[in-house]
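User: C-alpha cells for this one?
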Amino acid sequence: MPDGYSYEIREIAKEQFVTEGRTYDYVAESTGVSVSQLKRWGLDEDWTGARKEYREALSSIKRDSVLLRSKLVKAALATGDPQQVYAWAAVEKAVAATRKSSDSDTAVSAPEKLKNINTPEDAVAALQEVVELKLNKMLAQPDILQLSQIRELKQTMELIDQMKVKYAPEAEEDKVQGGLSDEAADMIRRQILGVKS
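Assistant:
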C-alpha cells in the first residue's frame, strides 16, 4: 500500500468512522493514523456516504422490525394459530433480550451503583472491577469485538497496574487521608477519562 499503512488499519479506521459514528479525531487517536490521511481515505472511499447509508439501513431495520412485530401480533390474535403465536413470542423474546442487554449496559452508570471512593486504593479497586466487567462483556460477544476496544482495555489495565504499584496498601506513607491526591485525580482524568489538562 503506497501510504505505508496496513489494510487492517485502514479497515479498522473505516469501521470506526462508518459503523461506530466516530469522528476523524477519535479515529486518528485510536489508530495512530493522521487526520489528514483519514480524510483522504474517506474521500477516496466515500466514508461519509457509507455512514449515511449505514444509518439509513439501521433506521430501516428498526422500522421494519416494529412493522413485523405488529403484523405478527395481529395475525396471532386474528387466527389464534399456535404457529403464529409462537412466531410472535419468539420475536418478542428476542426484543426483550436485546432491551435487557442494553439496560444492563446503562445500569452500570446508574447513581445507585456508584462506589464511595475515598482513597487511591479505592479508586484502583473500582477501576479494576470496571475493567473486569468490561472484559467479561467483550468476551461474551466475540463476534463484535474490535481491535480498538482491546487496545483501550490494554491501556487501562496498564494504568491500573501502574496505580497499584504507586498506591500499594503496604506504602502507608503514600496514603492520602480523606480522598484521592490531586496527582491521582489528575492521572485518572487524563488517562481514563481523556480530559486534557
